[in-house]
UniProtKB/TrEMBL annotation, chain A:
One of its GO terms (biological process) is P450-containing electron transport chain. Residues 2-105 form the 2Fe-2S ferredoxin-type domain. GO terms for molecular function: 2 iron, 2 sulfur cluster binding; electron transfer activity; metal ion binding. It holds the Pfam family Fer2. It comes from the Bacteria. Its cofactor is [2Fe-2S] cluster. GO terms for cellular component: cytosol. Keywords: 2Fe-2S, Iron, Iron-sulfur, Metal-binding. This is 2Fe-2S iron-sulfur cluster binding domain-containing protein. Belongs to the adrenodoxin/putidaredoxin family. InterPro entries: 2Fe-2S_ferredoxin-like_sf, 2Fe-2S_ferredoxin-type, Adrenodoxin-like, Adrenodoxin_Fe-S_BS, Beta-grasp_dom_sf.
From TrEMBL, chain B:
This is Ferredoxin--NADP reductase. Keywords: FAD, Flavoprotein, Monooxygenase, NADP, Oxidoreductase. Pfam families: Pyr_redox_2. FAD binds at residues 34, 42, 47, 87, 122, 286, 327. Residues 6-291 form the FAD/NAD(P)-binding domain. GO terms for molecular function: ferredoxin-NADP+ reductase activity; flavin adenine dinucleotide binding; monooxygenase activity; NADP binding. InterPro entries: FAD/NAD-bd_sf (IPR036188), FAD/NAD-binding_dom (IPR023753), Fd--NADP_Rdtase_type_2 (IPR022890), Ferredoxin-NADP_redctase_2 (IPR050097). Its EC number is 1.18.1.2. Binds 1 FAD per subunit. Belongs to the ferredoxin--NADP reductase type 2 family.
Amino acid sequence: MTKITYIAHDGTEFVVDAEDGSTVMENAIKNAVPGIEAECGGACACATCHVYVDEAWSETVGEPEAMEEDMLDFAYDVRPTSRLSCQITVRSELDGLVVTVPERQA
Amino acid sequence: MTTQTDVLIIGAGPVGLFAVFELGLLDLKCHLIDILDRPGGQCAELYPEKPIYDIPAWPIISAQELVDKLMEQIAPFNPGFTFNRMVNGLERLDEDGFRVTTDENEVFEAKVVVIAAGGGSFQPKRPPIPGIDAYEGTSVFYSVRRMEEFRGHDLLVVGGGDSALDWTLNLQPVAKTLTLVHRRPEFRAAPDSVNKMYALQETKALDFQVGQVKELIGEDGILRAAVIKGPEGDVEIACTRMLPFFGLTMKLGPIADWGLNLHENLIPVDTEKFETSEPGIFAIGDINWYPGKLKLILSGFHEAALMTQAAKRICNPGERVVFQYTTSSTSLQKKLGVT
């Protein structure tokens, strides 16, 4: 199990045990983290699971692929550490990962 | 002109398409209306290339392939299609049946209406800019119906896809000034359009800025400027018209106003006929709700088959419905054109 911390927009922290191979979005939905909508169900076809990856984790998590970059165009207040959480696969090296949920989803 | 049909299906996604097959086996003629420009619904619009793994007997099939196969399967029944239209109005006729109208004022009359509208109709996504709703319809538009409406305006186009680029190029000659704003210098549009845009920027015929719209400035719905958050901080850009292109989202739309019972924006149905609270109006696929509902394509197919039995009784009252298998029934095989 890999620990992920979600920080909701109001500052509330949700610490979740995530199974490797699942996505950061799926674990947010499973644990009812507010502000992650995932309208398309994880097909990288909307931009409603947008998160900011904590800067300390940015390099380990990695850069979005081209398709995800395209989708991020539809998100609100995109920053250099923005990712769509459905495109981040949980793996052991992400143990301790911290992501912040933006003010609003597109 | 009024189009007459037995069954009017709202939504041409996989479930609406398969309903044509089931209804066709019982000799019911179908017409489908969809807001998209082609069949397939979410499968075609959101994830055509993505594999689906839970269609019975297809260990893997892409969404577009599934749509193509369904179109092939229903071809013998020759359904009517009306694309690029949103269904606006629905009224019950004094005699049997319903009258359905579209946003372009086409009229359809049908004995039965089947709502297979999935997550609702695809509509332009409203970018989450605070206060944007105050400008919608006066200064902010999500589509271009007539180019003349933009003549002589300081125009701000936002987005990096084909719609944004195409309208940038088309409206540049009529606009007073045109600014294109996109989050990054890469586009997901045809390279040719991007090159043309950069060429126009070279000659200062338009301005391209990297950034995101943060705030709109104006009063009483009249836009004056937009604040763009760019790499070097905030910039104010004068504009009187804005065209944001942020893709499509699904909204229930006018269906919400038809007097049907709703359950969290879904349409409750029974699980025998999949009929709504209004007799003669059925709802199948992702748009319906009942205890235990799963939003699976295969559930929608099952719902289509059962709905068909009830629709047949409404369209041909008194006629005995004989249950038959396509494998063995020569009369069904004749309808399918395989004998």
